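Reopening closed ticket. The problem is back. First fold of the pair:
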Amino acid sequence: MELNVLSIIIPVAALIIGIVAGKIIFAANTKKQVEEADSQAQKIVSDAQTTAETLKKEKILEAKEQIVQLRAEHDKAVLEKNKKVNESETRARQKEQSLTQKIENLERQAKENDAIKENLNRQIEVVNQKRTELEKHQEEHIRRLEKIAALTADEAKAQLLETLKHEAQTQALTMQQEIIEEAKLKANKEARKLVIQTIQRTAAEQTIENTVTVFNLETDEIKGQIIGREGRNIRAIEAATGVDLIVDDTPEAIVLSSFDPLRREVARLALQRLVTDGRIHPARIEEVVEKTRKQLEEQVLDIGERTVIELGIHGLHKELVRMVGRMRFRSSYGQNLLMHSRETANLCATMAAELGLNPKLAKRAGLLHDIGKVPDEESELSHALLGAKLAEKYGENPAVVNAIGAHHDEMEMQYVISPIVQACDAISGARPGARREIMQQYLQRIKELENLALAYPGVEKAYAIQAGRELRVIAEADKMSDADSEKLSFEIALKIQTEMTYPGQIKVTVIREKRAVNVAR
């Protein structure tokens, strides 16, 4: 196609050049110019023809090269297609050979299987014959055994099953007991570890308090002013405050006695103001006591707010905050109630965090668990139930309400934090130095603990050890088995729990020992 184009282009180019040359000749004014123009035109035509021939030859060469290249590519593609066809034919032949071999193998295996099947059928027939013979021998053997043992096969089977059942039950009980003991051991170990970590992370103070307050005086002359003429002043103070004033030979001191620390604090502050003012008479006493009581109420609210802020508890009702402040002036077994509640709150938060629970909710329940001990009005309810009622009244979380009411098992525990509060309350009250117990009451409790164990038959001796935290019971080995000793331990623990009042917990250990003693002479 390129040759055809060139054959068209060359004459057209010559024609154009001729026209241009004619114009040049026509434009010449002189013959010389015409001749020169003719000469130039001929030269241009000659050059154009030369160039056209050169281009023609080049294009012809390029076309030949392209034809050769296309032919080579075509040959290469044909070779590749032939190669692929050959490979496909080779793979097809290989697959055909493989399939043929597999078919031959399957036919051979089928023949072998038929032979094996025939052999198995013969063996099955032999086995069936032997089984029939064996059943006959077995029936004969059973008849002989029944005749000898005077028992039928069903009766013997029933006895055997009963024996196996009894043995299986015994083994199952043993395994169950081992599993329970192992679980108890692990649970006690983890619980002790958790409790110890919680106690170690909580710094506690010595919170024992007395039921008396000593009011110091500058001189003994002020005692007369406090007593007043015919004891009018001291009677007015006792009537206004509800506190007994003990004026004795103690130099420069008066003892304020009351089981209510709030009343003692009111009396102390009122006496301090009266002594400082110097005007001591019944009317003035009533006025000062009333002012002191109001100021102490403000102080109670301030103590409650400060406590709540320090513990990081938010959204507590104002009345509950005031009750928390009143705890500062209450005590239980000599332990300050506010310090006990704060300690319980911190223990609850730590233990809840260790268990992956909500520490803020546990801390809230720990702080409020004893608010039933500081009510504004007397109630016949126990302090746990009264505290739960107050918490519910002032919109506390149901989990907190349940923890308050259940920390002495007077309500059913429905939330996970309830046993945490109960445990932390026991930890705070039972730790060394937390509470004071009169020696006579302590000895009486120890004696009752030992007598309770001695009342059971088969108990030889009983010892209360570790300050009454553990009861060791020595059982008579001839009158009691190992199972009976376990039952005795459970019954004693249950009776102590239901009949006695004690701080913390008491471990009951029953020891049964058989000693065989002989003397070689």
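Second fold of the pair, where the issue appears:
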Amino acid sequence: MECLIPNIIVGIVCLIAGGAVAYYLKLQVIKVKADKILQDAEIVADGIKTEAESVKNEAEIAKTEADVIRQEKIVQAKEKFLQLKSDHEKYVSDKNRKIVSNENKIKQRENTLNQRRDDIQRKQKEIEVKKKEIEVKKKEIEVKKKENEAIKNNLSVQLEVVEKKTVELENLHSKQVEQLEILAGLSAEDAKKQLVESIKSEAKTDAMSYINDIVDESKLTANKEAKRVVIQAIQRVATEATLENSVTVFHIDSDEIKGRIIGREGRNIRAIEAATGIEIIVDDTPEAIILSGFDPVRREIARLSLHQLVTDGRIHPARIEEVVNKTKKQIEEEIIEVGKRTAIDLGIHGLHPELIRLVGKMKYRSSYGQNLLQHSREVANLCAIMASELGMNAKLAKRAGLLHDIGKVPDDEPELPHAILGMKIAEKFKEKPEVCNAIGAHHDEIEMTNMISPIIQVCDAISGSRPGARREVAESYIKRLKDLEDLAMSYNGVLKTYAIQAGRELRVIVGSEKVTDKDSENLSYEIAKRIQDEMTYPGQIKITVIRETRAINYAK
């Protein structure tokens, strides 16, 4: 027993020592594993740190790219906004332009309606005045009828008395004839023939005197009536005087646009001139460009094309050609619209479409500064008034008045007087013979065959010769009058010359001792012939040669 106790103690000690060793060994194993785990953890941490740095770099790169993309998107958004703003402003400006155009059309229609209303009111007043005049004339006619009946009754009574006296005179005459035959040695038949011859000669003299009195009275009445009709026609037609030039001024906002219009080495301005046929003058005039050309249609096309190009901002040869072609179509449509509106305003129906186009084209043509369409409208209204006053076809006269100058606006330029060319155009489109003759004869190129032709000629002269209707440079006007007077003074026997009525009449005073009446007629013809051959003038010139004989004595 005592031997087992030490063994047990030794066993316990060994067991404790073995456990301690095992625990130490286990601690060492655990420590090794822990070190390994720490090493692995450090490796993993280094890897994670490397990846984190890589991710961070990628994030920074992505952030940089995002900033770039954001800036690009902002720039694109700004460009889109500016484009939308430009389109919106252009749309608004187009709308405003259309609104202004519509307002102008509405105002024009209101003015037309007001004018028509005034015309209707004036016509109603005239009708009322005429009605009153007719009633007065009816009363006068009734009074004259009563007077005529009274005169007729008196005449019937006097006729009975005359018949009784005639019977008595016949009896007395038969007795006197017998006595005269015996005394004169003539038969009754011979005496009757002599009496008839003497009565015939006396009747002829009295008849000629009576006819001369009637002719003189009718001339005075006709002149008075003609003046009344002309004055009334002029008073009833009021038209504005329009003056036009051969240049158009195109206004620009700044002188910078001039360089863009000229283009590199002048290619833009050459393209515009080639497309429109208008000379463009770009000089030192501030904020202005001058369009020069004698064709108003081309000037208007150039002006509208330039306006559209400057507004759009794209100015280059291809764009210029496109805009000019588009503007030409717009002008052509506007010409047709103006022709239709003119025909409707004047109440003229059934015009051929080509004639309507020529009428609209008159808007862009002027003659001596007078707008041709305005002149033709005025002539048409004057013709209608004068024709109605004279009891003729007012609608036919108005039609001829509107078309009388269509020979001035043909598409080609033949070598014919505008009156003859206009007549041929009217004949081509089946106008009535009266209208064609009036067109061709309004400057005496052909003979007048109806009563409408002189009305057209007179109304054309009224519209063209009224003050302010036509423009003429003062120097050339004075020179033309002086040339007229000098031409007439170059003939022998001419004492004085006077150009009157704005150069439409030349009065030549000759000496009676050097020039006879026959010579006066020849002199008038020769002066007219020389003026036609040597001078340029509007309308026609009347040459009046005055020969006067004066016998002067003094009673002392």
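Update: turned out to be a display glitch only; the data is intact. The chain has 14 helices and eight strands. The first strand starts at residue 247 and ends at 251. Please close again.
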